[in-house]
Design a protein that fits this description.
homodimer, 238 residues, alpha+beta, ten-stranded antiparallel β-sheet, 5 helices, globular, Pyridoxamine 5'-phosphate oxidase family protein (chains A, B), Split_barrel_FMN-bd (chains A, B), Pyridox_Oxase-rel (chains A, B)
Amino acid sequence: MTTEDFSITDKNRVKRSYKRASYKKETVYHILDSSALAHVAYVIDNTPFCTPTTHWREGDYLYWHGSSASRMINRLKQGVDVCVTVSRLDGFVLARSAFHHSVNYRSVMCFGKATLVSNEEEKYRALNNMIERFFPKRTDEIREVTQKELKATSVIKMKIDVAAAKMRAAGPQDDEEDYANPIWAGVIPLTTIIGTYQPDDRLENGITPSESLNVWTSGKRLDDVLTETQQIYMNRLT
Amino acid sequence: MTTEDFSITDKNRVKRSYKRASYKKETVYHILDSSALAHVAYVIDNTPFCTPTTHWREGDYLYWHGSSASRMINRLKQGVDVCVTVSRLDGFVLARSAFHHSVNYRSVMCFGKATLVSNEEEKYRALNNMIERFFPKRTDEIREVTQKELKATSVIKMKIDVAAAKMRAAGPQDDEEDYANPIWAGVIPLTTIIGTYQPDDRLENGITPSESLNVWTSGKRLDDVLTETQQIYMNRLT
């Protein structure tokens, strides 16, 4: 847990609805850690690209991986500027005017320079950590990463230089004179939940999910599960 | 419904796992229409930015809006290149080796030039359409958009020049020799669902949700609801 803030620069300063903003590391990290989907923006020949990927965090560093032959990796290994955004919708906000309709959300924009993890040992550790971060202890049970697999995969690491979180979690805020309009207003919440496990077609009879998957209970909220597994992962790292 | 494809250029050609790719407009549009969250990448002074926003589609055009004072709008109104990515995670794929762990997902990257909707009438229509697209018929019930609100809001429109969808929806594909490893493998699915309506604190007693909200039934999948409301919206446009 940290009580630090990110410094505020031209890049991460939230210009609109700044009351919804936070530069606290604790807030930024919580949003990053409770999601498994990031969008990475980078520039090639002045053209912006936005690639979705699965990210994970270790301290002030974000990690993601990709095929060594992918466009994203080929660009990012040059050590370029990236913006990594993680966001999710928590609900639709229905107001009494179009203008005050809104969404509840949690989002974070992180800025930094991409670096290729070139040290073999660090890369091996990172690829295991990617599994451990989501499924703690699973690397004890799966077959080890081979040299060939290490070659085929690239890992990108980014120190979060500056970041900002932006959130909305409230009901509609209508103009005073509109409250008299007899129309339903409120929030329609959205939740992402863990579904029913689908065993692989070739799974042998009698093989059940390991105890390490207990945290991934069907019906639970994804953000809760990811927060829990990140906590287990961080505790094992230290 | 369209049977057309997007042309394939250097921008949208899927380089890795190209079997997961599709350039069919029908596929691209379905992914766009079944989601309410887009990530817009753009460049300011060679630095990439990735801003999350709520999008909607009309034919070959994507729309989104923002405060006239926001960084994104200030940049995009200059008519610059953008990449709009819409993606969601459908599940975690657990394999018998780290390398074959994966995620099931649906994503689409759209490329084009942002344009500011400057015609007042078109802008008024667009702001109503943003509500209609999610909540068909709701603009009949809410208070009309005022001139002041029109000024405070900017609408961006982008013709989708090229786009590519990329999807994975399958169980693990392990190396033949790893199937003997007695570990659970399969898919942990993720679903985003509509929660229980939260009425506004100031809602007067006896006001219930309009019939137009019937499609937003609690417990339904968000992607299904969004696909349905887009269909209703498109039918009313034509």
